[in-house]
Predict the structure of Glutamyl-tRNA(Gln) amidotransferase subunit A.
Amino acid sequence: MSLASLSASVTAIAQGVRDGEAAVFAAARQSLAAIARQEPAIRAWSHVLPVAALERMEPERHAAGALAGVPIGIKDVIDVADMPTGFGAPALTAGKAAFDACSVGMLRAAGAIPVGKTVTAEFAFRTPGPTRNPHALAHTPGGSSSGSAAAVAAGMVPAALGTQTGGSMIRPAAYCGVVGFKPSVGRVFRDGMKLTCESLDTIGWYANSVADAQAIADVLVGGVDSDGAEKRRLTIAVQLGNPKAGLCAESRAEIERARAVLAAHEVQCVTVEAENETALLLQAHDVIMHYEFARSLAPVLERQGHALSEALRQAVAHGLAIGAGQYQEMREVQAALRHGWGALYGGADLVLTPSTPAPAPHGLEHTGDASYNKIWSVLGWPCLHLPTGFSRTGLPLGMQLVGNLGEDLALLAAGRKLHHLLKQQGE
């Protein structure tokens, strides 16, 4: 199966449209054709824009801007005007959204063309949708942003929005072998997204390169943050330990290879042990996530509980049993450590850490292990998955870089340079 049906990058598509060298809807048509060819095997979409709908769009609205003419997928917990939002719950009746979510509206204003809604796990939680991993159809693509990651990996779209509460952006990026970016909490507007966890949920995106992820960040994140890491020798804290997950030999070897490559390019890598803090943050994530998830989904359960999975109903019951005192205690842990970069990592610019314990596991009944993602979600720090190689069986390998709160653009800039080094050495 080809994984490069839509080979042009986000930046190349937009430049071609702005320069008049490509028709405004050319890439969108190519995207819809790629979806039609590959969707029966990948099953990444819950709704696809009809080809005829392109004829009703106004070309001038998409002929300019940073993302002119760029087709993009939208996770099915984020509203797109005139498309159904189904939340990955097939038994629910999905009504068409009246308006774009804020993030979708910003993309559209920059010239992008939403071509459909991508499959999500049920209410972005645990029960997987039908999506397959494009690299190995019998292996999970991860969750909950499975459709978005798989659609980019399969070449159906050059970019797609997802969300992360625990590991829902970074894990699918790792399993499907694409770049995945989760911004700092609160950095991207969430209006028009179904919130399930108020203090954790974050909108992110997938692309085939860090440069393309930066192009989308220019639209959705914007602003300026610290660029100090660009002006001096980088120091990276390498954190491998996790009390909830063991790192497989191939994933460990890939990170050790990365350390050697970075050291050869004068990047200082310092091993950091933070198992006590990691254990506390994993506990905080479990309490905060279940407490907030339960209260967000309780009204849905009350009205249409019959349409929801047993796993989701159990999660709501578990969360409702958590007391406000325990929740507040874990929110205080979250707040105390969220601004504790200096105490944990001293003078380091970034953290290098696994994205997952191992490549995508076999089977489609579970979305994989998020132990290496949850602590960064509860901290709210920005994360960038870099695909760097393949396992002996042909499954993607990679790692994530983590930045300090609010330093999203600096993380992307450093990640672009480092990814180039790591991919060069890995080829």
User: Anything to note?
Assistant: The CA atoms of residues 161 and 205 lie 4 Å apart. The chain has a mean pLDDT of 94. The longest helix spans residues 275-304.
